[in-house]
Design brief:
Order of helices and strands: EEEEEEEEEEE
Number of helices: 0
Length: 116
C-alpha cells in the first residue's frame, strides 16, 4: 500500500519557522513529482510547492522567498522549510506524490497554526 506520512506541524508565532517532513510509511513508490499542498479553514486545497525528480522546484507566489522544498524523490521523501511564517499560512499541510501513471497519492496532513 502506498502511503505518505507528514510530520513537523505545530503552533508557532508569526515570524518563526517550521520544517515539515514527508516520508513513506509503506512501500517506496515511483513519483515523477512530489510536493506540498495546504488547506486553510473554509478554503480549498492549494499548491504550496513542488519538486521534480530532476530537482526543479515550483512555488506559490504567496510563499516564494520564505519556503523551501527539498528532498529525494527516489526515496519518496520531501521536506518543506517554512520561514517567516504568517498567520495566513495557518492550514493543514498535505504531502503529495504524483506517480508516473498520473495517479496522485496523499498523506493525511499535518496542522500548522501561526498565531500570536
Amino acid at each position: 500500500q502506498v502511503q505518505l506520512e507528514e510530520s513537523g506541524g505545530g503552533v508557532v508565532q508569526p515570524g518563526e519557522s517550521l520544517r515539515l517532513s514527508c516520508v513513506p510509511s509503506g512501500i517506496i513508490f515511483w513519483y515523477k513529482t512530489m510536493g506540498w499542498y495546504r488547506q486553510a479553514p473554509g478554503k480549498g486545497r492549494e499548491l504550496v510547492a513542488t519538486i521534480t525528480r530532476g530537482g526543479n522546484t515550483n512555488y506559490a507566489d504567496s510563499v516564494k522567498g520564505r519556503f523551501t522544498i527539498s528532498g529525494d524523490i527516489v526515496k519518496s521523501t520531501v521536506y518543506l522549510q517554512m520561514n517567516s511564517l504568517k498567520s495566513e499560512d495557518t492550514a493543514v499541510y498535505y504531502c503529495n506524490g504524483n506517480a508516473l501513471n498520473g495517479i496522485n497519492y496523499w498523506g493525511k496532513g499535518t496542522l500548522v497554526t501561526v498565531s500570536s
